[in-house]
Hints:
Blueprint: H1 27-51, H2 54-64, H3 116-137, H4 142-148, E1 151-155, E2 159-165, H5 182-195, E3 202-207, H6 220-237, E4 245-250, E5 268-274
Parallel strand pairs: 3-4
Antiparallel strand pairs: 1-2, 2-5, 3-5
Helix pairs in contact: 3-5, 5-6
Amino acid sequence: MAGQSNVAPVIIKRKKIIQGGGHHGGAWKVAYADFVTAMMAFFMLMWLLNATTEKQRKGIADYFNPTIPVNRISGGGDGAFGGDSVFSEQTLVQNGTGAADAAATDAEKARGDSNGGRNDADEEKKMEEVTKELSARGGESMTMERLMRHVTTRVTDEGLVIEVFDLPETALFIKDTDQPTGALIAITGLLAEVLALAENKVAIGGHVRSYPITLIKNPVWDLSSTRAQAMRNLIESKGLSGTRIARISGHADRKPVTADPTALRNNRLEVILLRRDR
């Protein structure tokens, strides 16, 4: 017993382990990264839809969907694999400098498109020239400067749009009629001169404001059409060839340019110098 009293006592230490404070894993980080990527793609899609034209969107869609190798427009055919055969002249794009058949007819020959880019550049340059010439006329006199306050221009996919509109102090037509005022007659003479700088076709569209009350017979359709027709007669009388008029259209009050559809600013004419493919 005396020998056992010298033995050191055995001490047992018990550790209390707290669960739940350790590593949870990184699955949430992956899910969050996927969510951020999806949101970025969504906002980029919204931006592209707002910032691009219809042709540009078509090109982007074809770039991400290159399943059909050949198309007459931008990369796709009208049948399986773009047509009956990838060697068929009727289904292949005829933008090259030669033809597949040894003795192809004029209709089947590939006519080439080597000048397509240059033609587009020339067309843009011509529209810019018309715009500059129109702006320059406004500085010739005080009268011309006042007339040019009725005119704005913009370039669209359709072509150069020259918009002529009412001002509070000066209207283009006698109220609720298609009888032009002296201001419109003078502006039309100016337009005929600057449009002579190009050879493109011209379209004329008439727009009118909405009437503030409901009428038994709403005149907006007839009025917009007859005003467009009156503009055609005026511009032809000022020297523009009638063969250049591609179309006349009346849009009634369906395309207002202001938040208030009854505003005078919506009484307007659009003279469009069309692109060659329109």
